[in-house]
Write a structure and sequence with these properties.
The chain is globular, with a radius of gyration of 19 Å. The chain has helices spanning 2-11, 13-32, 35-61, 68-83, 86-92, 98-101, 107-129, 136-150, 152-155, 171-189, 191-201, 203-208, 213-239, 249-261. It contains 14 helices and no strands. It is mostly helical.
């Protein structure tokens, strides 16, 4: 424990510096006051959230996952369902359950629900996927995309779901990015994070020492899924429109490239 506390004390410098850099960018953007530039920085903060979400699982486990953007899709649609005007939902999404049809939440409330929903979905999928190879996660992504592209009465199929309240302020996106950076750090220094990295570097020795590798991967997969869901909700509120193709191969490979290069 003392060694872990010492490690935490040293490693906390990194998330603090990252958050300070993001804060400086947010302040500079506010001072410039340009709407196009403001939108660019909002997109940057959203991508930070998504790449940090990927890092929590891929970076700590060493297992490539092509399915995390699927949880981004889940989060985006949950945010849309909970924030669009009920009258508009009745016209465009008539298959929604009545309690969702009548719901009208603030964007931050919907983002919390989306985070939890995506995390639970990751937990369910992960109980199967964590015992398979990383390529199996691509099947999950394809399955989510296929369902959302064809469930016309609930997701609008390939049509754009519009009417999502757009959040133009940069500060909610900065706050979310700062939170996920610290969540990733807390997971990294936790017992689960340390055990997972040990399994990544020396899987045979880790298993021999009593580490339950599938369990540790499942914890990271669930945390990663929740973060990706939050990123999806904020993506929906940054552009005001969602379609299943927004959260498929293009975004998958762009964010994976960002993770690898970064």
């Amino acid at each position: 424990k003392p060694a872990r506390f010492a490690l935490a004390g040293k490693s906390i410098v990194t998330p603090i510096l990252l958050v300070l850099i993001l804060l400086a960018i947010a302040i500079a953007t506010t001072m410039i006051g340009s709407k196009p530039f403001n939108q660019v920085i909002i997109d940057v903060f959203v991508r930070v959230i998504l790449v940090v979400g990927l890092y929590v699982f891929i970076g700590n486990s060493g297992v490539m996952s092509f399915g995390q953007i699927g949880f981004t899709c889940l989060g985006a649609y949950v945010a849309a369902w909970l924030t669009i005007n009920p009258i508009m939902k009745k016209m465009s999404l008539p298959g929604l359950p009545s309690f969702i049809m009548q719901a009208k939440m603030d964007y931050w409330q919907a983002a919390i629900v989306a985070t939890i929903f995506a995390g639970v979905a990751a937990l369910i999928f992960g109980r199967i996927l964590m015992r398979l190879s990383g390529i199996a996660t691509f099947a999950m992504l394809a399955m989510i995309n296929t369902i959302y592209s064809n469930w016309d009465s609930v997701t609008g199929a390939t049509s754009s779901v519009v009417g999502i309240p757009i959040v133009r302020s940069i500060w909610p996106y900065f706050t979310a990015a700062a939170i996920v950076v610290f969540v990733a750090w807390l997971h990294a220094i936790s017992r689960a994070g340390l055990a997972l990295r040990a399994a990544r570097d020396e899987p045979t020795a880790a298993a021999a020492s009593g580490i339950d590798i599938p369990r540790e991967r499942l914890i990271a997969f669930t945390v990663s899924g929740a973060i990706m869901g939050l990123g999806g909700a904020l993506t929906a509120h940054s552009i005001g429109v969602v379609t299943p193709d927004n959260f498929y191969l293009s975004l998958t490979f762009v964010t994976l490239s960002m993770l690898v290069v970064g």
